Amino acid sequence: MKPSIVIATYNRSSDLKRCLDSLMNQTAPDLEIIVIDDASPDDTVEMVRRRYGDRVRLIESETNQGSIKNRNRGARLAQGDVLFLIDDDTEFPGPDTVSEVTREFEKPYVGALAIPYYQDGELRQSATETSEGEHAVASYIGCASAIRRDLFLSLGGYEEFFHHQVEEDDLSIRMLNQGKIVQIARVSDPMMHYESPTRNFQRWDYLGRRNSILYIWKNAPLSFLLPNLLATTVRGLTHAVKLRRFKGNLTGLAAGYGGMVASLFGKGCSRKPVRRAVYLATLKLRKTPMPVAWTRERIEPR
């Protein structure tokens, strides 16, 4: 299977350079690398052209579109069978990571892989040291992941009304509803993620609360809808009080419920609930990774 790397980038030339340099050392044959620049005001475009030439396919956006739209665009343009829709602030320390991850897709039940990675010295997206065998998870973190391209496109890609955050969770549960799982990848060298020290917490809180409400509205079976909406609302309010960040959290909750109302009139996020067994399995997988065999047994239609 042929891998394609898709990187949506904005105004982080030095981070992108570190990421691309590590990709130049990958042993995977015929590796396709696509960089979509989201109208960066820095020297990103010039740096990619000057340093990498035709080794990287550069796509320039005339206006800022956001990461989800650019990842969907990159998925449509890619020619590989496996998509690595990674962030520009990641790095591949080991040369065989892309090859190792791509080989795991020979298993037909694997829809996506959560690649273990280090962030702030902590190993993430990894089963416990005492766990053996293959493990499934509810979702993956977009900075370190891979997914079947044909599956991604058949599901419509990421839902663009999310803008940012929760899109991976939404795609993962839709994937599970089709019988494909998110498995923890087994790699010799975990990836690295250098999270940006600058964040707009008001926007972060707003989208997190809004999208959590819309995720439940879209995917939850009817019997779970009201209890999960209530629990998510309480968590959002608690988060706002604990961190004393009220504006983003409260306006995000309001926007989530407003999106629910708008969907009743055919706008935005319409309800497409998954099967009950899939929703129950996802709730369990959110708490802890589970063996692949357990997950497959739970999601098979009765």
Would you write up a description of this structure?
The chain is an alpha/beta fold and 302 residues long. It has 2 domains: 3-193, Alpha-Beta Complex (Spore Coat Polysaccharide Biosynthesis Protein SpsA, Chain A), CATH 3.90.550.10; 201-263, no CATH class. Helix content is 44%, strand content 17%. The chain has 11 helices and 13 strands. The protein has helices at residues 13-23, 44-52, 67-77, 97-103, 149-154, 167-177, 201-219, 222-243, 246-263, 276-287, 292-299; strands spanning 3-9, 32-37, 57-60, 82-86, 90-91, 110-114, 117-119, 122-124, 135-137, 145-148, 181-184, 191-193, 290-291. Helix 2 links the parallel strand 2 (32-37) and strand 3 (57-60). Helix 1 (13-23) runs parallel beside helix 2 (44-52) and helix 8 (222-243) runs antiparallel to helix 9 (246-263). The two termini are 32 Å apart. The model has no long low-confidence stretch (mean pLDDT 94).
SSE layout and pairings?
Elements: E1 3-9, H1 13-23, E2 32-37, H2 44-52, E3 57-60, H3 67-77, E4 82-86, E5 90-91, H4 97-103, E6 110-114, E7 117-119, E8 122-124, E9 135-137, E10 145-148, H5 149-154, H6 167-177, E11 181-184, E12 191-193, H7 201-219, H8 222-243, H9 246-263, H10 276-287, E13 290-291, H11 292-299
Parallel strand pairs: 1-2, 1-4, 2-3, 6-11, 7-12
Antiparallel strand pairs: 4-10, 5-12, 6-10, 7-8, 9-11, 9-13
